[in-house]
Amino acid sequence: MLEVILLIVSILLIAIVLLQSGKASSAGSVITGGNDALFQNMKERGLELVISRVTLVLGILFFIISLILFLK
User: How many other C-beta atoms can be found within 10 angstroms of the C-beta atom of residue 39?
Assistant: First the structure.
């Protein structure tokens, strides 16, 4: 039963990570020397915040279920 739940959580985690907007795209400006976004305060709002929190919850669930299955 836990294996099926782990499979579902894994698929959902992959899908939700692919839906996230690229936060690393602004990290490329550090290498090229552009620091225009260095001190820019950007907060997640709306759908980005929901996707971020769902990713966190799914990641924690994945870790806990994997640990339980390992210790079995």
Answer: 6
Nearest Cα residue to 23 out of 3, 1, 4, 51: 51
DSSP assignment of 9-29 equals HHHHHHHHHHHS--SGGGTHH
pTM of the model: 0.72
Domain residue ranges of the chain, discontinuous segments joined by + = 1-19+47-72
Chain segment 42-70, per-residue pLDDT in tens = 777 888 999 999 999 999 999 999 999 99
Question: Structure tokens of 52?
Answer: 């971020």
The Cα–Cα gap between 65 and 20 comes to 23
C-alpha span between 61 and 53 (Å, rounded): 12
Q: What is the DSSP letter of 60?
A: H
